[in-house]
From TrEMBL:
Its EC number is 3.5.4.33. Keywords: Hydrolase, Metal-binding, tRNA processing, Zinc. This is tRNA-specific adenosine deaminase. It comes from Neobacillus rhizosphaerae. It catalyses: adenosine(34) in tRNA + H2O + H(+) = inosine(34) in tRNA + NH4(+). Catalyzes the deamination of adenosine to inosine at the wobble position 34 of tRNA(Arg2). GO terms for molecular function: tRNA-specific adenosine-34 deaminase activity. Homodimer. InterPro entries: APOBEC/CMP_deaminase_Zn-bd (IPR016192), CMP_dCMP_dom (IPR002125), Cytidine_deaminase-like (IPR016193), MafB19-deam (IPR058535), tRNA_aden_deaminase (IPR028883).
Amino acid sequence: MTLEYNQDEYFMKEAIEEAKKAEELDEVPIGAVIVSQGKVLARAHNLRESEQNAVAHAELLAIDQACRKVGSWRLENTTLYVTLEPCPMCSGAIILSRVKRVVYGATDPKGGCAGTLMNLLQDERFNHQSLVTKGVLETECGQLLSDFFRKIRDRKKLERQVKRENEVK
């Protein structure tokens, strides 16, 4: 295993910890960390439901935090680790903030724009491209999401059953 891969796993585990914080809030468990020179510069997790804000994605919150910390909108020479492949909105913010490299865990077949539906991060028509590494701790990242959505489906099923039982009474 290369040093870079070990480092990728280490920081992806940090992103997973952020995703678990989101899950505790009943948010979709997605976490992100931005790293510069081997140190975490920013960390965030989804807060879309808590804040009722469509742009409160983990990546955008981490980018905002990192920009404030460095005092610049340019995040050159940083790596963003995220548990789920970035969506179009987050991919746009990654490009615009000049993140050098993106490492993600699980692919997103419904919204992934780092290689699945399209690859905005490496589209040469933009004035910036990011290096992309996919599938780091993919199983663990995907399992978090699968378990979360299974719990939601089970909860809704139980709510429907209770409603039907109450209607019968």
